[in-house]
Design a protein that fits this description.
The chain is of the alpha+beta class and 89 residues long. The chain contains three helices and two strands. It has one domain: name from scop. The N and C termini lie far apart (39 Å).
Length: 89
């Protein structure tokens, strides 16, 4: 199985939309995933969304038709971070 990975960033009040900042398959995907783990970044797995995001150029805003799917990822990420904070206390 050839893994794929896409990394995005979004800065509220600065960016118009989330941007694809890294993407790749095979060894590049493994390195993206490894870096995410090193920096304790939550990893969301959705092969269909990953395939769509692989078509977005690096440092390009995601297209409007992907906003809803990506919002769901960011909501999941926010909830995951809140749970992690609660478990620390």
């Amino acid at each position: 199985m050839n893994p794929k990975a896409v990394a995005m960033k979004y800065k509220a009040y600065e960016d118009n939309a989330p941007k694809v900042i890294a993407k790749g398959s095979g060894e590049i995907a493994k390195k993206i995933i490894q870096k995410a783990k090193e920096y304790d970044v939550a990893i969301f797995q959705n092969p269909e969304l990953t395939d769509m995001l692989m078509n977005v150029e690096l440092n390009e805003d995601i297209p409007a038709e992907l906003y809803q799917a990506v919002v769901e990822v960011f909501v999941w990420l926010h909830k995951t971070e809140q749970k992690a904070e609660l478990s620390k206390n």
